Amino acid sequence: SSYVKLAIGDAAPARTRVCHRNRHPLWEQCFFFDLAGLAPDSRVSVSVHGRGRMRTEHFCGAVLTTLSHLLSPVTDVVEPVDSWYRLTPRKAADRVSGDLRLSIMLLPRHVLDVVQWSEDASTLMDPQLLHSLLHGYSMRISLKEVVSLKLTKGITPEKLVRKLSVQIRAGRCELHLDFKARDVRVDTVGGVTTCSLRIDETLIFPLTRAFRVTPMWMSKSKHREEIADVRVYLMYGDEPLAKTNVPVWDISLASNAPPPA
């Protein structure tokens, strides 16, 4: 589980929501900073922080630069520019790896006065708000393929294809689908065996009931933290082999949404 803090100059840092149980989190949040009075060499700090199972906080890496360097790729106003930045350690003992993608956009002052806002993660996690916004909607989930799934000891490809299933959870609802894997491919490199396969199944998940939750259900910490997550588990019998989660507000409501990059 991880979140990001952003700060420019002496302003108080902004903070993203927490993406739970996700090795490749997509925060997809916008923050606006007033650049008036800032010098080109003003410090820019973007730090990634993690939260462990016991709710312990740990540092995952940072991007430290200056305002002029951050804005150097931007050549046009109101035209966002995406750039990847290597995460660096804060001190020699930090174990850091990975990259962070930032989308930078310059706005004229009169535009900033109109669009300036900040996301409130507690509002986005409100089940009553989610229920009212998503009432009447169903979520169509197309399961395509699994690539380079590491096989644990004792699980052979033959056993795997006989006991595979997918479990999807959103709010208080859950769907379970047994499926027959297709085009199974096995690779072994350096003693590590991986398996790739096709699923090609589609599920329809009703959202009206998913966020109609009770105070008792929300009293559990796990439920409270993951109320807005759509969680997908690849199961081997009763054992989860792999899992990921996507916040429900990051899923497009358009029927012709483009595929992810």
From TrEMBL:
CDD domains: C2
Gene3D superfamilies tied to this protein: C2 domain
Pfam families reported for this sequence: C2
InterPro entries, alphabetized: At1g03370/At5g50170-like, C2_dom, C2_domain_sf
Transmembrane segments: none
Residue ranges constituting the C2 domain according to the UniProt record: 1-85
Domain of life assignment: Eukaryota
PANTHER family found in the cross-reference section: BNAA05G37250D PROTEIN (PTHR46296), OS06G0297800 PROTEIN (PTHR46296:SF8)
Protein name (Swiss-Prot/TrEMBL): C2 domain-containing protein
Organism: Chlamydomonas euryale
